[in-house]
Amino acid sequence: MNHRLVRTVASLAFGLSCGSAWAGLSVEAGEVRLSGAGATFPAPLYTRWVSEYEKGHPSVQIDYRSIGSGGGVKAIADKTVAFGATDAPLSEKEIAAMGGTDSVVQFPAALGAVVPAYNLPGVDKPLQFTGAILVDIYLGRISSWDDAQLQKLNPDVKLPKTPITPVFRTDGSGTTHVFTSYLGTQSPEFKGEVGVGKQVKWPLGQGGKGNEGVAAVIQQTAGALGYIEHNYAIANKISYGAVQNKAGKFVLATPESVSAAGDASSATLKGNVLRADVWNAPGDGAYPISAFTYIVLYKQLENIKTDAEASALLGYQRWTLGPGQKFAAEMHYAPLSEKVQAAALAALSSVTHQGKPIPVQP
Amino acid sequence: MTPASAATPAANTPGWSRESMQARLGGSGGGGNKAEAATLRRARIGDAMLDWACRLSAALIALMLISLIAVLVHSAWPAIKQFGLGFLVNSEWRANEIERPLRDSAGKLILRDGEPAMETLAPAFGALPVIWGTAISSALALLIAVPISLSAAIFLVRVAPKLKIAGAASFLIEFLAAVPSLAFGIWALFVLAPFFQKYVGPFLHRILEPLPGLRWMFYESTTVAGRTIERPIPLTGRDLFTGSLILAIMILPIVTSVSRDVLRAVPRTQIEGTLALGATWWQSCVAMLRYGRSGLLGAIMLGLARAAGETMAVTMVIGNNNQISPSPFAPAQTMASVLANEFGEATEGLHRAALLYVALILLTMSLIFNVIARRLVVGKLASRNQ
Questions:
Q1: Looking at CA atoms only, how far is residue A190 from chain B in angstroms?
Q2: Do B99 and A2 lie within an 8 Å CB cutoff?
Q3: Does the pTM exceed 0.80?
Q4: Nearby residues of A104 by Cβ (< 8 Å), 6 or more positions away
Q5: Is residue B229 located within the same domain as residue B208?
Q6: Boundaries of domain holding B364
Q7: Cα A86 to Cα A89: distance, rounded to the nearest angstrom
Q8: In a shared domain, residues B138 and B63
Q9: In this structure, are B33 and B112 located in the same domain?
Q10: How, if at all, do strands A128-129 and A242-244 pair?
């Protein structure tokens, strides 16, 4: 609950140490420092990427600060970081603030999934949900686990007569955005009553702050059902269910099923500002509550001073889209499919350093 | 004498005013001696410097409060301008825009050129749910804490000294005040809430629900697309009731220790007078409480101010839902907890301004409570020293 304080203290300490590094110790010749900031959801993956990349490239140092998507977009717009990271793609207004489509590059770095997680002692098989049932639970129309519709969907499980406590995120988050966007495609009533967004007004239920807050409420409450990031459910050993996709199949979130959801959108990924809404994606194997997480750069890297830094930044981003992708599944995110990787690399290749081409790092 | 009570007479010894210092410096040698004159001059320069340093420090503190209010008003201005005082009575708190088809009064879709006509609801912010949550949780907390605090204060003043445990008992109660609120919160989240969920909630449900007129405590209703659905409230242990209980525990020490000081200031002659007139022990305690009532009210106000502003512990157990539900077993939200929950990710301008508007209301309220409390308590304690 007090993560913000910890984060503030940590960033303060970070700021102080940076300050002293600049003031006292000089950076060794040939060493390059890069900074990125933004989304908290992919932060564990980005941290892993940075440490793996630095092993092979000892002259490059990258700091990623997970300050939230909104903070990341602001930081790159203010040119205080080399790259920004965001779960929600840039809005038209945000792109305009950065100088329009021609001066921005945005590409997906990986995919994540949101899962319906629950606490039902005695039920050890993953339950099956449809979008309509999730809507009914969150609108209060299904209030007990032994509801006839739920039981019909899960004939092999004896569902208990426990009341359902819906759990939601109280802070603005990409997770809520993805989940409400998906529910919005499933029910016009949900779209008209609760709506879609990073933060919405839920008609009932318990609120928790952050994935950890929601996870804590679920773990403590028999009968709770909440939405959390897939990797968070795995890390905390919280049960989660399969969701029916557009093709009518019940699919569990796995790196493969989430990648498949991203792959379904690959034909629409063109140009240098890539975005695709991949919830409710078509395809038998696609998990329906999936989303891309994005990296944002300036197309001409006007926020970068030296050629060496520009070259290191591009080298790192290329690496994350290539060899780095194999770490995504390990960390319970989903890698980009080959077609999406190609589209992202194409967007990245349009980047120049203030008009000059950037030499590719060995 | 216990250490706690031994400290009080020191405050009454005369001595550290400027006049008495000078009188002592001037009076010690009788004048005429050069060295003594130099000492006196130095002392005067030192006096002046200290004088100004103290004035500056005092001004700095006042300035901090003023700039705090100024900054809050400035950053909350977009919300103040848009919602005005209606902010206080509007119950809709929704950060997202909703686009939905227009319906007529019968609930049928309105068509425009064959297509359903759409309406867009802009984000709306009203503070009534959080004001409600703060008011009810603080009131419940006082309801629980005040009787306990007053009884404990009477014990500390009238019983404990005879048993020679007044010091130890006071220390334990004041020690509660030193526990960080996060520690209370974690205890509430991992001990109190599960205990309520497993035992207290179901127990209360079983004995209270059959009683006539108490159904509202255990059922909630939501309105979806014009239809109202009633459903039982899941008893999770994270609700207004648990939030109030943890608040009660947290305000106990301040209310108890201030009440103790107020009761101690009741003149002995008053108590002895009542006893001499044949009052029982109980009646003389009531007389004592009546004598100190304005100071005790001040102690309660201080508790109220703390309850209204308490953040972390409440956020962890109150359920965090911006709704107005009459039931104490429904999740709620307070002004402080909505700030803790939403401020960090509130990047959109009006949302941020609305949260700062809430902060401004909270600050104003706490200031008012504190000012009233100080006047009541300080007035009472000062009269003792005359």
A1: 9
A2: no
A3: yes
A4: A90, A95, A98, A272, A273, A296, A297, A298, A299
A5: yes
A6: 126-385
A7: 7
A8: no
A9: no
A10: parallel
Kindly determine whether residue B312 and residue A223, on different chains, have CB atoms separated by under 8 Å.
no
d(CA B246, CA B193): 10
Q: Does B226 touch chain A (CB under 8 A)?
A: no
Whether B17 is covered by a domain: the verdict is no
For residue B280, count CB atoms less than 10 angstroms from its CB and return exposed for 0-12, middle for 13-18, buried for 19 or more.
Answer: exposed
Residues of A in contact with B332 (CB under 8 A): none
**Closest of B330, B363, B358 to residue B125, by C-alpha:** B358
- State the best of B341, B342, B351, B352 to mutate against chain A, taking most chain A CBs within 10 Å: B341
* Residues of A with Cβ-Cβ distance to B101 under 8 angstroms: 188, 192
User: Are B320 and A199 inside 8 Å of each other by CB?
Assistant: no
**CB-CB neighbors (< 8 A) of A9 in chain B:** none
B163 pLDDT tier (thresholds 50, 70, 90): confident
Do B242 and B99 fall into the same domain?
no
- B249 in the same domain as B209: yes
Nearest CB to B320 within list A4, A200, A208: A208
B21 belongs to a structural domain:
no
Q: Kindly report the number of other CB atoms within 10 A of residue B359's CB atom.
A: 19
* Strand pairing report for B98-101 and B118-121: antiparallel
Q: Which of B224, B240, B329 is the best mutation test for A, with the most CBs of A within 10 A? A: B224
> What's the complex ipTM?
0.80
Looking at chain A from residue 230 to 289, which residues have their Cβ under 8 Å from any Cβ of chain B? none
pLDDT of residue B26: 52
The pLDDT tens digits for A238-248 are 999 999 999 99
Same domain, B186 and B50: no
Whether chain A has a CB inside 8 Å of the CB on B182: the answer is yes
Report, in this order, helix, strand and coil percent for chain A, each rounded to 5.
40, 20, 40
CB contact under 8 A, A217 and B231: no
Which pLDDT tens digit goes with each residue over A323-360?
999 999 999 999 999 999 999 999 999 999 888 888 76
Touching check for A8 and chain B: CB below 8 Å?
no
Q: How many CB atoms lie within 10 A of CB B99?
A: 13
Instruction: Identify residue B112 by its one-letter amino acid code.
Output: R
- Å from B331 to nearest chain A CA? 6
Task: Answer yes or no: is pLDDT of B226 > 80.
Answer: no
Neighbouring residues of B44: CB distance < 8 A, sequence distance ≥ 6: none
Find the radius of gyration of the CA atoms of chain B: 28
Mean of pLDDT values over B264-272? 90
Residue B19 in this model has a pLDDT that exceeds 60: no
- Residues B239 and B189: their CA atoms lie apart, in Å, by 11
